[in-house]
Every structure is written in C-alpha cells, then in structure tokens.
C-alpha cells in the first residue's frame, strides 16, 4: 500500500485528511473507552509482529495521580487480574494486595469493592493504620482488620475457602503486604510485613529497619572524622544485618550480627541524650548479659 499526500491550500483540510488516512490505515490506534467520572487511567498494550495484542494493562489513578488499581487482562483465560494499592493516614502508599481475578472480561470499570473490610466497606487507612495505643484497638497499625471474603471477584473471596473456582489457593484473611512509614520528615520505611496470618503486621515476624545517627563504630578501622550512617535490618526470623553508608549513600561496610557470649556494653553518646528532644533508637546486638552505659 502506498499513501500519497496531496498538497492542500487549506491547512485545516490537510490535518483532516491526514487524520482520516490514519483511521483507515491504523484503526486500532483510536479506541472507545467508557469514561471514569472520578478516575484517570493509563492503558498499556503490547503487540507481537503480527499485530496481535499480547499484553493489556489498565492502571487507574486517583485525582492526585497516584496509582490505585491495576487491571491486567489474562488473555488465555479471558479474565482480568487485579491488584490494588491502599494509602495510609497520610496518603502514602502502604498496603499492596496480592493479585486476584475479578471474573470479568474487560478492564474498563474501576472496582471500588475489590478489597473490603468486615463491614463490606471499601478497605482504607482506618482499617489498618490507626496510630498505635496501649489498647491495641482493632484497626491499629499492629492489629489490622481482616479482609471480607463474601463476594466473588473480590480479593478476600479468592484467598478464602469460599473460592469454588480454583483448588489449592492459600486461604488467608490478610492477603496483602504492608509497609509502615515513619511519622517524621524522613518518610522512611521502618517495618514491612508479608501476606498471611503468621507474617502480618503485629505477628512479631515483620522485617524491621532501624536508622541510626552518624555512627562511630568504624572509627578504629577507617579513622576519626569520617561520617557514616548505620542501619539495621532485622528479618522475619530475627537475623540482623548491619549496614554503614557514607554521606552520599554509598555502602561502606556490611555485616551480620551474632549472639555474643561475652558481655555487651554499648556506649551511648551524651550529646544524643542531651540534644535530642524525641526518643532515640538504640541498637544492641543480642547478648547473654546486657548493660547500657551512658
């Protein structure tokens, strides 16, 4: 096929002719979509060499442009797989659901009830991110609410014993991962949890990240005057990995801590306790005998 462009004196007519040719030759470029009144969305399609669609993803965004729900067509099973992000009380991405089928064929409808709470209302920060208190109330950070499993096509239904479509799908009322972000200016992730009852937030099997002020631990190796920042990653089994980075964030040293038989006596810098108005996190490796000297 050859496309011949004829010069037009009228500029508007030229543009119209060009668009008409595009529609005739490449009809798949422009497609109809049902508008979403409160949701923006982005569609990503991948084609093979023959022009067949091999991947179709529609990402729904809220009015702030944050990714909220991803719907991907399962072209082999003629289904739609959904994942959703839920934001914490400060509007930060905190909860990520596991993927689950919606049992529909098109992605042109946002699913507000894909993940719901025990009252069958849309799951939000009030269900998992209330500030921790001594009462450990339902819906607090370490006592999240369970996900409802009553409706087919929802996250909870797929990961429950109500699922009659697929055998051997693990059942859990916590089918999501979470990250807890510090309530300070750093916006640093301090705790992450995995899906499942035994790895949920509040189970004691979370991954914890402790950030420290400039550390002096390496002075006997690298000399005095160098400033390094220490972080400690404690995994689900309690193993600790200590990392030191410089002011540019480059890794300087990394090690794993072990349980010491001898006495562990970490010293706390006086100026930390005197000048810091907030609490100070102290990292003390496991030891059989423990004292802290100031």
Briefly summarize what is shown:
The protein is mostly beta strands and 294 residues long. The chain is built from 4 helices and 12 strands.
Layout of helices and strands:
Layout: H1 11-25, E1 40-47, E2 53-61, E3 67-74, E4 79-87, E5 93-97, E6 100-101, H2 155-158, E7 176-181, E8 189-193, E9 207-215, H3 219-222, E10 228-234, E11 240-245, E12 251-256, H4 270-275
Antiparallel strand pairs: 1-2, 2-3, 3-4, 4-5, 4-6, 5-7, 7-8, 8-9, 9-10, 10-11, 11-12
Features:
294 residues, mainly beta, 12 strands, 27% strand, globular
* Structural class determined from secondary elements: mainly beta
Count the helices. How many?
4
Taken in chain order, the helices and strands follow as HEEEEEEHEEEHEEEH
How much is the radius of gyration in Å? 27 Å
Counting DSSP E segments of at least 2 residues, the number of strands comes to: 12
What's the overall average pLDDT, rounded? 79
Query: What is the CA-CA span between the terminal residues?
Result: 84 Å
Low-confidence stretches: 1-9, 11-35, 260-281
Please give the share of residues in helix. under 10%
Task: Describe the fold and architecture.
Helix content is 10%, strand content 27%. It is globular and about 65 Å long. Residues 1-9, 11-35 and 260-281 have low confidence and may be disordered. It has helices spanning 11-25, 155-158, 219-222, 270-275, and strands spanning 40-47, 53-61, 67-74, 79-87, 93-97, 100-101, 176-181, 189-193, 207-215, 228-234, 240-245, 251-256. It contains 4 helices and 12 strands. The longest helix has 15 residues, at 11-25. Strands 1, 2, 3, 4, 5, 6, 7, 8, 9, 10, 11 and 12 form a 12-stranded antiparallel beta sheet that branches. The chain is mostly beta strands.
């Amino acid at each position: 096929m050859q496309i011949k462009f004829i010069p037009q004196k009228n500029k508007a007519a030229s543009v119209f002719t060009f668009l008409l040719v595009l529609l005739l030759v490449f009809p798949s470029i422009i497609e109809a979509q049902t508008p979403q009144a409160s949701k923006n969305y982005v569609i990503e399609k991948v084609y093979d060499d023959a022009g067949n669609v091999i991947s179709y993803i529609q990402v729904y965004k809220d009015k702030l442009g944050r990714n909220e729900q991803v719907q991907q067509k399962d072209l082999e099973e003629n289904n739609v797989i959904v994942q959703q992000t839920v934001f914490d009380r400060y509007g930060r991405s905190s909860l990520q659901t596991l993927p689950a089928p919606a049992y529909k064929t098109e992605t042109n409808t946002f699913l507000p009830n894909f993940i719901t709470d025990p009252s069958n209302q849309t799951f939000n920060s009030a269900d998992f991110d209330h500030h921790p208190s001594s009462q450990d109330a339902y819906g607090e950070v370490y006592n999240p609410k369970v996900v409802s499993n009553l409706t087919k096509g929802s996250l909870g239904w797929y990961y429950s014993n109500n699922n009659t479509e697929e055998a051997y799908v693990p059942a859990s009322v916590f089918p999501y991962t979470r990250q807890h972000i510090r309530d300070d200016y750093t916006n640093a992730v301090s705790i992450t949890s995995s899906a499942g009852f035994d790895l949920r937030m509040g189970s004691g099997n979370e991954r914890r990240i402790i950030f420290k002020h400039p550390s002096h631990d390496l002075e006997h190796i690298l000399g005095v005057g160098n400033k390094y920042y220490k972080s400690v990653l404690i995994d689900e089994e309690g193993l600790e990995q200590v990392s030191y980075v410089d002011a540019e964030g480059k890794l300087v040293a990394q090690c794993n801590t072990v349980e010491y038989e001898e006495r562990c006596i970490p010293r706390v810098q006086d100026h930390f306790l005197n000048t810091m108005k907030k609490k100070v996190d102290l990292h003390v490796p496991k030891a059989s005998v423990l004292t802290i000297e100031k």
